Amino acid sequence: MVKKIKYYKNFEISNKDKKSILLIGNFDGLHSGHQKLFNLAKKYKEKYKLKIGVLTFEPMPKMYFNKSIKNFRISNLNQKNFILKNLDIDFIITKKFDKKFSKIQSNNFIKDILYKKLRAKYIFVSNNFRFGNKREGDVQELIKNEKVFNFKIIKPKPLVLKNKVISSTLIRNLLIKGKLSKANKLLKRKWSIEGTVEKGRQQGKKIGFPTCNIDIKDYVIAMPGVYAVRVYQKNKNSYLKAIANLGYRPTFRQKKILLEVHIFNFSGNLYNKHLSVEFIKFIRKEKKFKNIDQLRKQINSDLKIAKQSK
Description:
The protein is of the alpha/beta class. The chain contains eleven helices and 14 strands. Helix content is 31%, strand content 25%.
C-alpha cells in the first residue's frame, strides 16, 4: 500500500516536516539516475530517523526563462507526483517558478528558505545545481554555508552507463532519435504521455482506423512515427493494446503535432476521457504516402507488428 504524502505549494510547511532530508531538483522523468539519489536518501532516512522531502519547481525553470522551449518534458507534474509516491518520500514542495522567485538572491534562498522556513538537515543536490538571481548560487556556496546554517550538502556521484551520465537530457535525446527501448531502459519503465481525448478531423475513421486524438502539450517530441502502445484509462489497472502515430500526418498535411491512438478491438466513446499512453516499441518513422490506399496498406502492416509487441 502506497503511503499518504503531503503536498505543499509554498515553503510554509508543517513543523513535523521540518528538519528533514531535502532533495532539490526538476526530477524530469525520474529516471534511474534520480532513483539512485532517492535510494541513497532512504539510507540516510533509516540511519538518522528523518523524513524525506522533495523541492521541485513548476514550470521547469528552463522553460520559464526560455519561452521558445515548448516541447521539453519527459513527464508532466501528475506523472512526476505519481512516481514520487512510490519512492518512499514524506512530502513534496512544488514551488511556482515565477518572476518574484527567480529574483531571490542566492544567500537569501539559503538563509530564508532552506534554513528559516525548511530547517533542512541533509540537502541532496546534483553537482550542476544552480539557484538564485541569474543562477548566481552553486553547490560550493551551499557547502560554504553548512556550518552557519546547520545543514549538510550531499552531492552523490551521477549514475554512469557506458561512459555516459544518465540524465534527463540524455533520455530526451534518445526519444528524439527514436531509440525508445534505450530510453525505457534508463527510465526503468515505459515512457508515457497523458492527455485528454479531443475531437479530431475524423480522418482515421474515414479510412477504417478510428483514433483517439491527444494533444501532447509540452511533452518532448519523440521521433515522429508509428509506435506499439498500451492505453490505460483513469482508475483502471488493466490496459488496452493499441497502435499510435505521433506526428504531423504528412499525407493529410497536418501542421500540429498530434498523438493518434487506434485501440484494437475497442468500441466505445472516449471523447474527453483522460488516457495514459505507454510507448512499447518504435515501429517506423512517419512518412508521406501518395494516396489513401498506400497509407491503408502500410497501416495494416504496422498493425501486425504492433499486435505482436509485448
